[in-house]
């Protein structure tokens, strides 16, 4: 009978949840129909991430570990769950911000259902209905629901996880007597030492032991998904999990502790593949995402009071002042009224309020009810206070970072509102009415919202706004329809920045990318030489952290005769947006009248002389079918012509290379039919080595990136003289050549690595998909297979594998390097590092032992040895090596 009543109570409230969700859905869709704004920085970046996942799943390889690794690498800092869930929405409803944000409707349903279930579990149906409705009115939730951000999905998943944890924590164990009987007259609630229940006094259905395991498993799955949503999920769930663990151990409730441990193990198993792939990036990027951002944004230091009251000051605005004030007042002033249970019941089609005074005359009744109520409130406060303190401990502050608190806070506020007696119900309904009005005006266009009703947490619809991102992308595609293009973006406004321009480019079949440049004075020269398109803006340019670098690059583009002004647009803020294009493009694509089966080198232009160790200009003209051209890697070798010179101590280089992909890999695959014939003109720069000297001739070969097939390419009879007295002007080196040049410095160790990764960071800005690394890997893989004793090829291939996080190939390459460069301790250090990255501590230890034997004074080896000892559980070794490294 009791179970039937509980089931009926749940069913009676479901229409309210569905109605609240439907109202929110309609409001959201109407808002998007009216709004004409563009996504700002974070929103556009996340939308681009969703598009990347959608593209990856167009041709899935479900049983390929390499494919899954490539999927996890699509997002190295932000966990992928929201992107994964958005993918089917894009597939069904199409691309675009409005379509992608439909995923928030799913998370809204999860959030409302979780709040509803949590409220019933801890309080009653009346609180559940009100708490569900309040979630629609809280500005902190309604605003982020209209953006494609991770914060709203995180709020939903964290609330779901906390609900499932509460289900498990409040689970009851059926007494032995009941297990032997088919009839149970009333529910039995066991002591906390047996059940570890947070709530003991309100009735619950009898649950078998199997159900508690299912609750624990459900919690584990949800906890794993929350960690796959965003790492700060741990801030909100850490305290209740630790609380329950400590209580279980203190009460020696071993079965409950094991269940909780199993749930945590399930969570780890779910999120481990992504974290295992990206753990090093997560750790190294943590400082930039927290400390550096906090300093740049002027967030208060942790040693100040302001850091600890920052979110408390923000809470009234996040939940609306009327609701916050009335809810807290109800809890503080009328908590004694919790002894009276008020319920609305549907009787013969009518909703009637009933007051339950049963047991009021029984001794101890009030104490039992108060105890149950306080335990429910205490459980919510454990969650709220723990999360508040941990969020405050994060130096990087933002109001939306604490939004996962709001659904749970809504439950407390709903209980506070319901505690008001009927004679004071004006406070309850007044708070609801005022909050509803404030929410409505926070969504209306700014022109229709009175100033005195404008809130700090608002998302005003924009009636008209054209910042010309689509026009910029269209202009670039019209000029270079066959090429994938990266635009250097100087302004950084919410309405126009590198992220929303990049997102607009992904909507055009990923043909245009936007990347911010002009952020470092030392990189201004290379910024101006490495791209062919730039967007500048006069007037205010937004969040520019280094104005000096911005101004220098802006001047370098506007006043450089190598660039021409391509288009100008007038912006809503009455300023102008300028699109610049390099006057002589390095890559030109033109139709070719004669179809050919193989790629041909029709022409090559080089200077009469070039200097060793300095870039030299070179122009290639290739022809072939579109399929062959877009899939082609060029193996270009300059071979020295033997002469009768006497043997010298430092002989000149016998050969050097200018390997690269045709058109630098920038041909748009779907822009032309595969068998159509085209001509590609490349105006590039090659790099003779510092020890090059004499006369060199060119040999060429074609390597197909997809099939690995190769064939020789006929080359005109051409000779190049390398002379130290030669002077030439050349464009920026292609990225593959730069990467290979950097790889030659790897034997030098940590000093070389600092420069390598600084330069790679720059190159990754210029090539957003890092295809140059893939080109280098494929080229060097082929060359190294041909010459397995070539140390230069080995280091280059190893670096490319590391940058693509291809762990096993990197380990195999470094093992070969330790054979070729056996006297260099740095080679063994690299091998140890990649083994540690893959948690192979034993293999790393062997490599470190060899390295330390060669150079025991190298501090980097001691640091790696400390990590290896820690991974192996050898704390003594870890501590001793740490002291030696410091």
Give the topology.
Elements: H1 2-34, H2 41-56, H3 65-72, H4 81-93, H5 97-100, H6 103-122, H7 125-137, H8 139-144, H9 151-169, H10 176-179, H11 192-195, H12 209-227, H13 233-250, H14 254-297, H15 305-319, H16 321-333, E1 341-347, E2 350-356, H17 365-393, H18 406-418, H19 425-443, H20 469-479, E3 485-489, H21 498-506, E4 512-516, H22 524-530, E5 533-537, H23 547-558, E6 563-570, E7 576-582, E8 587-591, E9 600-605, E10 609-610, E11 616-625, H24 626-630, E12 632-640, E13 655-657, E14 660-661, E15 677-686, E16 694-704, E17 710-713, E18 719-722, H25 735-743, H26 750-766, H27 771-786, H28 791-803, H29 807-820, H30 825-837, H31 841-854, H32 859-871, H33 875-885
Parallel strand pairs: 3-4, 3-5, 10-18
Antiparallel strand pairs: 1-2, 5-7, 6-7, 8-15, 9-11, 11-15, 12-13, 12-14, 12-16, 16-17, 16-18
Q: Strand fraction band?
A: 5-15%
How does the overall form come out from the CA principal axes? globular
What's the pLDDT, averaged over the residues? Answer: 87
Query: So how many helices?
Result: 33
Helicity level:
40-55%
